[in-house]
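Section 3.1: Structural characterization of target chains.
Under the original work plan, the team committed to producing a structural model for every single-chain target entering the pipeline before any wet-lab resources were allocated. The record below documents one such target. The sequence was received from the expression subgroup and is listed exactly as submitted; it comprises 435 residues.
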Amino acid sequence: MKKLFTKKTISLIMVILVMISTIGFANAGGNDVVIKSIIFQDENNNMVYVDYAEAIEQSLEGDKALYDAIVHYVGIAEEKGRLVYLETEAGVYLDYGKALTDNLSRLADIIDVEKYIVRGEIKYTHELWIDDGKPVITDPEAKPAQLVSITEVDGIEVEIGTTEETAKSMLPSSTTILDSRDRTHTVALDWAIENYDKDVIGNYNAIGRFELPRGVVNKKGIDLKVEAIVKVFEPVVEPEFPVEVESVFIIKSEITENTYANINIKEEYVSIVEEVKVDGKLANQIEDNSAQWRIKVEEETTAEDLKGRISVSTIVKEGKVQVGLYKNYRIAGNGINFGELKGSFYIKNKITGKEYKEGTSPWNSKYLYQMKDIPIGEYTIHFDVPEGMDILKVQIGNSYDETDYDAETNPLVVKETGKGIYDNVIILLKDKALE
Protein backbone atom coordinates (compact mmCIF):
# COMPACT_ATOMS: atom_id res chain seq x y z
CA MET A 1 0.00 0.00 0.00
CA LYS A 2 2.83 2.34 0.84
CA LYS A 3 4.44 1.83 -2.57
CA LEU A 4 1.15 2.41 -4.33
CA PHE A 5 0.67 5.57 -2.31
CA THR A 6 4.13 6.73 -3.34
CA LYS A 7 3.40 6.13 -7.03
CA LYS A 8 0.16 8.04 -6.84
CA THR A 9 1.92 10.84 -5.01
CA ILE A 10 4.63 11.05 -7.66
CA SER A 11 2.04 11.14 -10.45
CA LEU A 12 0.14 13.81 -8.61
CA ILE A 13 3.34 15.82 -8.19
CA MET A 14 3.97 15.62 -11.94
CA VAL A 15 0.47 16.85 -12.72
CA ILE A 16 0.92 19.70 -10.27
CA LEU A 17 4.30 20.55 -11.80
CA VAL A 18 2.78 20.61 -15.28
CA MET A 19 -0.09 22.80 -14.23
CA ILE A 20 2.03 25.18 -12.18
CA SER A 21 4.71 25.42 -14.89
CA THR A 22 2.23 26.95 -17.30
CA ILE A 23 2.10 29.99 -15.03
CA GLY A 24 5.62 29.74 -13.51
CA PHE A 25 7.13 29.00 -10.14
CA ALA A 26 7.59 31.75 -7.58
CA ASN A 27 11.15 31.73 -6.29
CA ALA A 28 12.56 33.36 -3.22
CA GLY A 29 13.30 36.56 -5.09
CA GLY A 30 9.72 36.91 -6.24
CA ASN A 31 10.50 36.01 -9.86
CA ASP A 32 8.70 33.38 -11.91
CA VAL A 33 10.67 30.27 -12.86
CA VAL A 34 9.44 28.14 -15.76
CA ILE A 35 10.61 24.62 -16.58
CA LYS A 36 12.04 24.43 -20.10
CA SER A 37 13.19 20.81 -20.32
CA ILE A 38 13.78 17.61 -18.37
CA ILE A 39 16.77 15.28 -18.64
CA PHE A 40 16.33 11.86 -17.06
CA GLN A 41 17.93 8.42 -16.95
CA ASP A 42 15.85 5.72 -18.63
CA GLU A 43 15.80 1.98 -18.05
CA ASN A 44 18.65 1.47 -20.52
CA ASN A 45 20.80 3.95 -18.58
CA ASN A 46 20.52 6.49 -21.42
CA MET A 47 20.38 10.15 -20.48
CA VAL A 48 17.20 11.33 -22.22
CA TYR A 49 16.19 14.91 -23.05
CA VAL A 50 12.54 15.95 -23.41
CA ASP A 51 11.18 19.37 -24.31
CA TYR A 52 8.88 20.08 -21.38
CA ALA A 53 7.79 23.51 -22.62
CA GLU A 54 6.76 21.95 -25.93
CA ALA A 55 4.72 19.33 -24.10
CA ILE A 56 2.86 22.02 -22.16
CA GLU A 57 2.20 24.03 -25.32
CA GLN A 58 0.86 20.97 -27.10
CA SER A 59 -1.31 20.05 -24.11
CA LEU A 60 -2.90 23.48 -24.13
CA GLU A 61 -3.69 22.87 -27.81
CA GLY A 62 -5.36 19.55 -26.97
CA ASP A 63 -2.49 17.16 -27.77
CA LYS A 64 -1.33 15.46 -24.56
CA ALA A 65 0.76 12.71 -26.16
CA LEU A 66 4.14 14.17 -25.21
CA TYR A 67 2.95 15.22 -21.75
CA ASP A 68 1.60 11.71 -21.08
CA ALA A 69 4.93 10.25 -22.25
CA ILE A 70 6.75 12.51 -19.77
CA VAL A 71 4.47 11.38 -16.96
CA HIS A 72 5.18 7.77 -17.88
CA TYR A 73 8.94 7.76 -18.48
CA VAL A 74 9.97 10.41 -15.95
CA GLY A 75 7.64 8.76 -13.48
CA ILE A 76 9.62 5.52 -13.84
CA ALA A 77 12.89 7.38 -13.29
CA GLU A 78 11.50 9.12 -10.21
CA GLU A 79 10.08 5.93 -8.76
CA LYS A 80 13.34 4.02 -9.17
CA GLY A 81 15.51 6.85 -7.91
CA ARG A 82 17.27 7.46 -11.20
CA LEU A 83 18.75 10.77 -12.30
CA VAL A 84 16.24 13.53 -13.06
CA TYR A 85 17.34 17.07 -13.90
CA LEU A 86 15.17 20.09 -14.62
CA GLU A 87 16.31 22.96 -16.84
CA THR A 88 14.71 26.34 -16.18
CA GLU A 89 13.98 28.93 -18.81
CA ALA A 90 16.97 30.86 -17.44
CA GLY A 91 19.28 27.94 -18.29
CA VAL A 92 19.77 26.79 -14.68
CA TYR A 93 19.89 23.01 -14.07
CA LEU A 94 18.35 21.57 -10.90
CA ASP A 95 18.96 18.06 -9.52
CA TYR A 96 15.34 17.12 -8.99
CA GLY A 97 16.16 13.46 -8.29
CA LYS A 98 18.31 14.52 -5.34
CA ALA A 99 15.52 16.81 -4.10
CA LEU A 100 13.04 13.93 -4.12
CA THR A 101 15.53 11.84 -2.10
CA ASP A 102 15.61 14.71 0.40
CA ASN A 103 11.80 14.61 0.56
CA LEU A 104 11.44 17.86 -1.41
CA SER A 105 9.23 18.18 -4.47
CA ARG A 106 8.31 21.87 -4.69
CA LEU A 107 10.53 23.98 -6.90
CA ALA A 108 10.05 26.88 -4.54
CA ASP A 109 11.94 24.84 -1.92
CA ILE A 110 14.98 24.08 -4.09
CA ILE A 111 15.27 26.82 -6.70
CA ASP A 112 17.79 28.89 -4.73
CA VAL A 113 19.43 26.08 -2.79
CA GLU A 114 23.05 25.58 -3.85
CA LYS A 115 22.89 21.86 -3.08
CA TYR A 116 20.42 21.26 -5.93
CA ILE A 117 21.92 23.62 -8.51
CA VAL A 118 24.06 21.82 -11.10
CA ARG A 119 26.94 23.85 -12.46
CA GLY A 120 27.56 23.35 -16.18
CA GLU A 121 25.45 21.66 -18.81
CA ILE A 122 23.86 18.22 -18.42
CA LYS A 123 24.81 16.04 -21.36
CA TYR A 124 22.34 13.62 -22.93
CA THR A 125 22.47 11.05 -25.72
CA HIS A 126 18.78 10.47 -26.51
CA GLU A 127 15.53 12.39 -26.81
CA LEU A 128 11.93 11.54 -25.97
CA TRP A 129 9.51 12.73 -28.65
CA ILE A 130 6.31 11.75 -30.45
CA ASP A 131 6.55 9.98 -33.80
CA ASP A 132 3.25 9.42 -35.60
CA GLY A 133 1.33 9.71 -32.33
CA LYS A 134 3.56 7.34 -30.36
CA PRO A 135 6.35 8.15 -27.88
CA VAL A 136 9.86 7.12 -28.93
CA ILE A 137 13.32 7.52 -27.41
CA THR A 138 15.94 7.91 -30.12
CA ASP A 139 19.13 9.66 -31.09
CA PRO A 140 18.26 13.40 -31.12
CA GLU A 141 19.12 13.65 -34.81
CA ALA A 142 16.32 11.22 -35.64
CA LYS A 143 13.72 13.74 -34.52
CA PRO A 144 12.69 16.13 -37.29
CA ALA A 145 13.44 19.75 -36.53
CA GLN A 146 10.49 22.10 -36.30
CA LEU A 147 9.99 25.20 -38.39
CA VAL A 148 10.57 28.20 -36.14
CA SER A 149 10.59 31.27 -38.38
CA ILE A 150 10.59 32.52 -41.98
CA THR A 151 12.78 35.39 -43.15
CA GLU A 152 10.81 38.19 -44.76
CA VAL A 153 11.77 39.51 -48.20
CA ASP A 154 11.76 42.97 -49.74
CA GLY A 155 9.25 44.18 -52.28
CA ILE A 156 10.09 45.63 -55.68
CA GLU A 157 9.17 48.57 -57.90
CA VAL A 158 8.48 48.09 -61.61
CA GLU A 159 7.66 50.52 -64.39
CA ILE A 160 4.13 50.58 -65.77
CA GLY A 161 3.85 48.08 -68.62
CA THR A 162 6.05 45.45 -66.95
CA THR A 163 4.52 42.01 -67.54
CA GLU A 164 3.58 39.79 -64.62
CA GLU A 165 6.18 37.19 -65.58
CA THR A 166 8.91 39.82 -65.65
CA ALA A 167 7.77 41.23 -62.30
CA LYS A 168 7.82 37.75 -60.75
CA SER A 169 11.32 37.16 -62.08
CA MET A 170 12.46 40.35 -60.31
CA LEU A 171 11.16 39.20 -56.92
CA PRO A 172 13.58 37.30 -54.64
CA SER A 173 13.98 33.74 -55.87
CA SER A 174 14.51 32.35 -52.36
CA THR A 175 14.38 33.08 -48.65
CA THR A 176 15.67 31.39 -45.51
CA ILE A 177 13.94 29.58 -42.67
CA LEU A 178 15.15 28.76 -39.17
CA ASP A 179 14.48 25.41 -37.51
CA SER A 180 14.37 24.39 -33.87
CA ARG A 181 18.02 23.31 -33.97
CA ASP A 182 19.08 26.84 -34.95
CA ARG A 183 19.87 25.69 -38.47
CA THR A 184 19.21 27.96 -41.43
CA HIS A 185 17.80 26.54 -44.67
CA THR A 186 17.39 28.23 -48.05
CA VAL A 187 14.04 27.57 -49.75
CA ALA A 188 12.95 28.42 -53.31
CA LEU A 189 9.94 30.71 -53.73
CA ASP A 190 7.10 30.23 -56.21
CA TRP A 191 5.47 33.64 -56.70
CA ALA A 192 1.94 34.75 -57.55
CA ILE A 193 0.87 38.41 -57.74
CA GLU A 194 -2.73 39.07 -56.75
CA ASN A 195 -4.88 40.89 -59.36
CA TYR A 196 -1.80 42.22 -61.17
CA ASP A 197 -2.43 44.71 -63.98
CA LYS A 198 0.70 45.92 -65.75
CA ASP A 199 -1.12 48.98 -67.07
CA VAL A 200 -2.50 50.26 -63.75
CA ILE A 201 -0.32 52.16 -61.28
CA GLY A 202 -0.56 50.92 -57.69
CA ASN A 203 0.62 48.40 -55.11
CA TYR A 204 0.03 44.68 -55.65
CA ASN A 205 0.42 41.94 -53.05
CA ALA A 206 2.78 39.15 -54.07
CA ILE A 207 2.81 35.79 -52.29
CA GLY A 208 5.82 33.49 -52.51
CA ARG A 209 5.16 29.92 -51.38
CA PHE A 210 7.74 27.24 -50.62
CA GLU A 211 8.16 23.64 -49.51
CA LEU A 212 9.97 22.56 -46.36
CA PRO A 213 13.32 20.84 -46.80
CA ARG A 214 13.78 17.24 -45.71
CA GLY A 215 14.12 16.90 -41.96
CA VAL A 216 12.01 19.94 -41.07
CA VAL A 217 8.36 19.67 -39.98
CA ASN A 218 5.67 22.26 -39.44
CA LYS A 219 3.80 21.17 -36.32
CA LYS A 220 2.64 24.70 -35.56
CA GLY A 221 0.90 24.97 -38.92
CA ILE A 222 2.78 28.09 -40.01
CA ASP A 223 1.67 29.25 -43.45
CA LEU A 224 4.58 28.41 -45.74
CA LYS A 225 4.79 31.71 -47.55
CA VAL A 226 6.29 35.17 -47.64
CA GLU A 227 4.60 38.32 -48.88
CA ALA A 228 5.97 41.34 -50.69
CA ILE A 229 4.61 44.45 -52.36
CA VAL A 230 5.03 44.98 -56.09
CA LYS A 231 4.72 48.70 -56.79
CA VAL A 232 3.83 49.64 -60.35
CA PHE A 233 4.86 53.22 -61.09
CA GLU A 234 5.11 55.57 -64.02
CA PRO A 235 8.68 56.82 -64.32
CA VAL A 236 9.34 60.52 -64.51
CA VAL A 237 10.72 61.11 -67.97
CA GLU A 238 13.35 63.82 -67.90
CA PRO A 239 13.01 66.23 -70.83
CA GLU A 240 15.63 65.75 -73.53
CA PHE A 241 16.54 67.20 -76.89
CA PRO A 242 14.94 65.56 -79.95
CA VAL A 243 16.91 62.64 -81.37
CA GLU A 244 17.86 64.73 -84.40
CA VAL A 245 19.65 67.36 -82.28
CA GLU A 246 23.42 66.99 -81.89
CA SER A 247 24.01 69.91 -79.50
CA VAL A 248 22.69 73.27 -78.31
CA PHE A 249 24.80 76.33 -77.54
CA ILE A 250 23.70 79.65 -76.05
CA ILE A 251 25.44 82.75 -77.44
CA LYS A 252 25.05 86.47 -76.76
CA SER A 253 25.78 89.15 -79.34
CA GLU A 254 28.07 91.92 -78.12
CA ILE A 255 26.59 94.16 -80.80
CA THR A 256 22.86 93.78 -80.12
CA GLU A 257 23.07 92.08 -76.72
CA ASN A 258 20.53 89.56 -78.04
CA THR A 259 20.72 86.00 -76.70
CA TYR A 260 20.46 83.17 -79.24
CA ALA A 261 20.27 79.40 -79.18
CA ASN A 262 22.35 77.65 -81.84
CA ILE A 263 20.69 74.26 -82.45
CA ASN A 264 22.98 71.85 -84.30
CA ILE A 265 21.46 68.90 -86.18
CA LYS A 266 23.13 65.48 -86.47
CA GLU A 267 24.72 64.88 -89.85
CA GLU A 268 22.47 61.95 -90.77
CA TYR A 269 19.34 64.07 -90.26
CA VAL A 270 20.43 67.33 -91.92
CA SER A 271 18.94 66.48 -95.33
CA ILE A 272 15.51 65.57 -93.97
CA VAL A 273 14.97 68.26 -91.31
CA GLU A 274 12.25 70.68 -92.53
CA GLU A 275 11.95 72.97 -89.54
CA VAL A 276 13.06 73.48 -85.95
CA LYS A 277 10.92 75.21 -83.34
CA VAL A 278 11.35 76.39 -79.75
CA ASP A 279 8.12 76.65 -77.79
CA GLY A 280 6.31 76.50 -81.14
CA LYS A 281 8.25 79.42 -82.60
CA LEU A 282 10.14 78.72 -85.83
CA ALA A 283 13.94 78.92 -85.74
CA ASN A 284 16.04 80.08 -88.71
CA GLN A 285 18.26 77.73 -90.69
CA ILE A 286 21.70 79.27 -91.11
CA GLU A 287 22.18 79.95 -94.81
CA ASP A 288 25.77 78.75 -95.11
CA ASN A 289 25.45 75.97 -92.50
CA SER A 290 22.38 73.80 -93.11
CA ALA A 291 23.11 71.75 -89.98
CA GLN A 292 22.54 74.77 -87.70
CA TRP A 293 19.32 76.51 -86.72
CA ARG A 294 19.19 79.72 -84.65
CA ILE A 295 16.50 81.40 -82.58
CA LYS A 296 16.40 84.34 -80.19
CA VAL A 297 15.77 83.32 -76.57
CA GLU A 298 15.37 85.12 -73.28
CA GLU A 299 18.45 86.44 -71.53
CA GLU A 300 20.08 84.00 -69.08
CA THR A 301 18.50 81.01 -70.86
CA THR A 302 20.72 77.92 -70.65
CA ALA A 303 20.93 74.93 -72.97
CA GLU A 304 19.42 72.76 -70.21
CA ASP A 305 16.44 75.12 -70.07
CA LEU A 306 15.60 74.23 -73.67
CA LYS A 307 15.27 70.50 -73.08
CA GLY A 308 11.70 69.49 -73.83
CA ARG A 309 11.01 72.81 -75.58
CA ILE A 310 12.66 72.10 -78.95
CA SER A 311 10.73 70.28 -81.67
CA VAL A 312 12.04 69.05 -85.02
CA SER A 313 9.97 68.27 -88.13
CA THR A 314 11.48 65.99 -90.76
CA ILE A 315 10.71 64.93 -94.29
CA VAL A 316 9.90 61.26 -94.00
CA LYS A 317 11.33 59.36 -96.94
CA GLU A 318 10.14 55.79 -97.12
CA GLY A 319 11.16 52.56 -98.74
CA LYS A 320 9.98 48.96 -98.99
CA VAL A 321 11.35 45.68 -97.65
CA GLN A 322 10.70 42.17 -98.93
CA VAL A 323 11.65 39.17 -96.80
CA GLY A 324 12.00 35.68 -98.23
CA LEU A 325 11.99 32.60 -95.99
CA TYR A 326 13.62 29.44 -97.35
CA LYS A 327 14.94 26.06 -96.28
CA ASN A 328 18.57 25.39 -97.21
CA TYR A 329 18.48 27.08 -100.65
CA ARG A 330 16.88 30.14 -102.19
CA ILE A 331 14.47 28.54 -104.61
CA ALA A 332 10.70 28.84 -104.66
CA GLY A 333 10.31 25.11 -104.08
CA ASN A 334 12.16 25.47 -100.78
CA GLY A 335 10.06 28.40 -99.61
CA ILE A 336 8.71 28.22 -96.03
CA ASN A 337 5.37 29.79 -95.18
CA PHE A 338 6.25 33.08 -93.48
CA GLY A 339 3.59 32.33 -90.88
CA GLU A 340 6.12 29.90 -89.36
CA LEU A 341 7.81 32.90 -87.77
CA LYS A 342 4.57 33.23 -85.74
CA GLY A 343 4.46 37.00 -85.87
CA SER A 344 7.86 37.35 -84.23
CA PHE A 345 9.54 39.07 -87.19
CA TYR A 346 10.30 42.79 -87.02
CA ILE A 347 12.99 45.25 -88.06
CA LYS A 348 14.28 47.98 -85.72
CA ASN A 349 15.58 51.40 -86.73
CA LYS A 350 19.12 51.73 -85.36
CA ILE A 351 18.74 55.44 -84.64
CA THR A 352 15.16 55.90 -83.43
CA GLY A 353 14.73 52.44 -81.94
CA LYS A 354 11.27 52.19 -83.52
CA GLU A 355 10.12 48.71 -84.54
CA TYR A 356 8.28 47.82 -87.75
CA LYS A 357 6.46 44.53 -88.26
CA GLU A 358 3.36 45.14 -90.39
CA GLY A 359 3.31 43.50 -93.80
CA THR A 360 1.54 41.01 -96.06
CA SER A 361 2.35 37.89 -98.08
CA PRO A 362 1.29 37.55 -101.74
CA TRP A 363 -1.48 34.95 -102.12
CA ASN A 364 0.68 32.81 -104.40
CA SER A 365 4.02 33.28 -102.59
CA LYS A 366 3.43 32.68 -98.88
CA TYR A 367 7.19 32.42 -98.29
CA LEU A 368 7.53 36.14 -99.05
CA TYR A 369 6.66 38.99 -96.67
CA GLN A 370 6.36 42.52 -98.03
CA MET A 371 6.61 45.62 -95.80
CA LYS A 372 5.84 49.12 -97.10
CA ASP A 373 6.18 52.70 -95.82
CA ILE A 374 9.39 51.98 -93.90
CA PRO A 375 11.38 55.18 -93.16
CA ILE A 376 14.77 55.13 -94.83
CA GLY A 377 17.71 54.27 -92.59
CA GLU A 378 19.64 51.40 -91.05
CA TYR A 379 17.78 48.52 -89.41
CA THR A 380 18.47 45.40 -87.38
CA ILE A 381 16.53 42.20 -88.08
CA HIS A 382 14.77 40.20 -85.37
CA PHE A 383 12.74 36.94 -85.34
CA ASP A 384 12.26 33.71 -83.39
CA VAL A 385 13.60 30.60 -85.11
CA PRO A 386 10.89 27.94 -85.60
CA GLU A 387 11.19 24.89 -83.36
CA GLY A 388 13.51 22.21 -84.69
CA MET A 389 15.36 24.60 -87.01
CA ASP A 390 18.47 26.77 -86.96
CA ILE A 391 19.61 29.81 -88.93
CA LEU A 392 21.76 28.87 -91.89
CA LYS A 393 22.24 32.38 -93.25
CA VAL A 394 20.63 35.84 -93.36
CA GLN A 395 21.41 38.03 -96.38
CA ILE A 396 20.43 41.55 -97.44
CA GLY A 397 20.68 43.82 -100.48
CA ASN A 398 19.58 43.98 -104.07
CA SER A 399 17.93 40.93 -105.55
CA TYR A 400 20.48 38.19 -106.30
CA ASP A 401 23.28 40.50 -105.21
CA GLU A 402 22.84 40.06 -101.45
CA THR A 403 25.56 40.14 -98.81
CA ASP A 404 25.68 38.51 -95.38
CA TYR A 405 23.77 40.51 -92.79
CA ASP A 406 25.52 41.76 -89.63
CA ALA A 407 23.70 43.97 -87.13
CA GLU A 408 26.80 46.07 -86.47
CA THR A 409 28.87 46.08 -89.63
CA ASN A 410 26.33 45.32 -92.37
CA PRO A 411 22.79 46.17 -91.24
CA LEU A 412 19.71 46.25 -93.43
CA VAL A 413 19.62 49.62 -95.22
CA VAL A 414 16.19 50.81 -96.33
CA LYS A 415 16.41 53.22 -99.27
CA GLU A 416 13.92 55.33 -101.13
CA THR A 417 13.03 53.01 -103.99
CA GLY A 418 10.81 53.14 -107.04
CA LYS A 419 7.53 51.38 -107.62
CA GLY A 420 7.75 47.61 -107.18
CA ILE A 421 11.37 47.74 -106.00
CA TYR A 422 12.22 46.32 -102.57
CA ASP A 423 15.25 46.12 -100.34
CA ASN A 424 15.59 42.38 -99.89
CA VAL A 425 16.11 40.19 -96.86
CA ILE A 426 16.78 36.49 -97.42
CA ILE A 427 16.48 34.11 -94.45
CA LEU A 428 17.80 30.57 -94.95
CA LEU A 429 16.94 27.98 -92.29
CA LYS A 430 18.10 24.40 -91.78
CA ASP A 431 16.93 21.35 -89.83
CA LYS A 432 18.65 20.82 -86.49
CA ALA A 433 18.32 17.07 -86.98
CA LEU A 434 20.67 17.20 -89.96
CA GLU A 435 23.53 18.81 -88.04
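The longest strand covers residues 318-327.
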